[in-house]
Amino acid sequence: xxxxxxxxxxxxxxxxxxxxxxxxxxxxxxxxxxxxxxxxxxxxxxxxxxxxxxxxxxxxxxxxxxxxxxxxxxxxxxxxxxxxxxxxxxxxxxxxxxxxxxxxxxxxxxxxxxxxxxxxxxxxxxxxxxxxxxxxxxxxxxxxxxxxxxxxxxxxxxxxxxxxxxxxxxxxxxxxxxxxxxxxxxxxxxxxxxxxxxxxxxxxxxxxxxxxxxxxxxxxxxxxxxxxxxxxxxxxxxxxxxxxxxxxxxxxxxxxxxxxxxxxxxxxxxxxxxxxxxxxxxxxxxxxxxxxxxxxxxxxxxxxxxxxxxxxxxxxxxxxxxxxxxxxxxxxxxxxxxxxxxxxxxxxxxxxxxxxxxxxxxxxxxxxxxxxxxxxxxxxxxxxxxxxxxxxxxxxxxxxxxxxxxxxxxxxxxxxxxxxxxxxxxxxxxxxxxxxxxxxxxxxxxxxxxxxxxxxxxxxxxxxxxxxxxxxxxxxxxxxxxxxxxxxxxxxxxxxxxxxxxxxxxxxxxxxxxxxxxxxxxxxxxxxxxxxxxxxxxxxxxxxxxxxxxxxxxxxxxxxxxxxxxxxxxxxxxxxxxxxxxxxxxxxxxxxxxxxxxxxxxxxxxxxxxxxxxxxxxxxxxxxxxxxxxxxxxxxxxxxxxxxxxxxxxxxxxxxxxxxxxxxxxxxxxxxxxxxxxxxxxxxxxxxxxxxxxxxxxxxxx
Length: 702
Hints:
By secondary structure, the chain is an alpha/beta fold. It is 38% helix and 17% strand. Strand 3 and strand 4 form a beta hairpin. About 3% of the residues have low confidence. This is Probable DNA 3'-5' helicase RecG.
């Protein structure tokens, strides 16, 4: 049961003054927590943290104000100059002065009555905003703060700047956050006093108050004491949660899986290539874990095209040799069926009995699959979330593989555990992860890395092209299709949107259909399963040569002779996603290209992303750069372990705190496994505050 002193933080944000359903929906868009089916709570607002500040402490006077500087000026209003009646193209101007000079305050489409009330002629007024100089004359366009001198105490000298969304003002968000802060009770300290002093950490509540009401820019700096305190708290909550999950899973004693090697050997002979050294090393680590009586929890991390699926298949074969069953779970039906298409021919040559189970299997097909799993006639099953259903019963599940782990949650790792007698578990990700994020998101696992790609893979030439040169690109596409090449064309949207003015997949398909005729296909996530299968089959077999798609083909799709990837509005995608999409080509022995179409003008972050994509194909280097560029927000779907995500993308700055948090988590659990001490009670509060619901559930269960 949740501690009652936290109840004020668990009320819906719509119960706060000035936050109705409309504003609440906007605030939910900037809350960093994956809310799932629940509404945002007041406590969620505590962790909507500012990413920078506006420093209004600079008071240089009008004459001493530099071009482009944010300044605060004490001025006296001289006169108002409204635009001519009916001519809204001319701005409204208010002229003022101080001891150093005169300034024009400029307003477009202004309401005269408001300005006359806010700045009466002859009154002493405090204004703040960005200074501009035109022809040697100072001006300030739309000052962002105006107050009579008698009311200037309310001016925030260091104003926090929060992430916003269309329709939500910073003022409204700040007011809501202030109410959430007022609801934060005085909490017992869960940190060790000596550690607090060494780190110069403020108390938890003081740290939040300092960040939301900064007195100095250092208060919202990633290097500041307040931010470091909260960073450590989040990291500690994460590591305690992962340690609890690991302890829970490890308590389920596994059994050694040692086969005679017959099936594995047949699989190796069926492979059309030799394993890389990295694959062999990872497989040796997995085999050693399988042979150990203790249950395996291992992450297999590899770049696009590094051969994770083959490693997983060989490991599953070993489990079958030992007399058990194996399951391979994928996040999407397309990926599950692609895995089946990849491993089924190899499995047949090795004598492995394999089946698929997704939401699409119905009737006799589903009945037979369920019966085969229950009787043990099926050795390996490939499936989606459908494998979690109660009707799915295994005869003897001893090994589970979860692909694209970042799309699943910690609780789903436990759910698959319930399907067998403490099955060994291998989770895979094709998104390379920097070391510190591995420790954060997958701290309950051992890690194997695949750092090589199979021999024969050709480098992918990556170019950027503005959308203004689309006709030139289309001419080259016509030539490429005529030459027998296959082309992916990725769009960010399925269909036209009133809110986002981008070319959708359906519109792009319609625009290119006259040019390519029957040689063009379309696939997106809203199509029925059979339609998607048919579109992919036609493309793979060469009946269509250009496939218009959304990111539904981001992972798992394997068409070795596809040689061109066009990504439209590439500036709208993150680095990791661009890298995943590019990895759909260059999978054969033919030189491939990736064209990143972008819309000008580009921001600095978008420019850097596209530049990185041109410079390297190294997924681990791209992941590191992605970490630097993202700033605030979630990077890897970290909600899988309950992380609000305000700190994860800046973790590189706090690697020392991460190591300390890992050590402290181990120490806490070794001394007090069920966290029943006074400090343990405080840690429960910490876990509640950071949304570690799975960890709290495990604590309650003992």
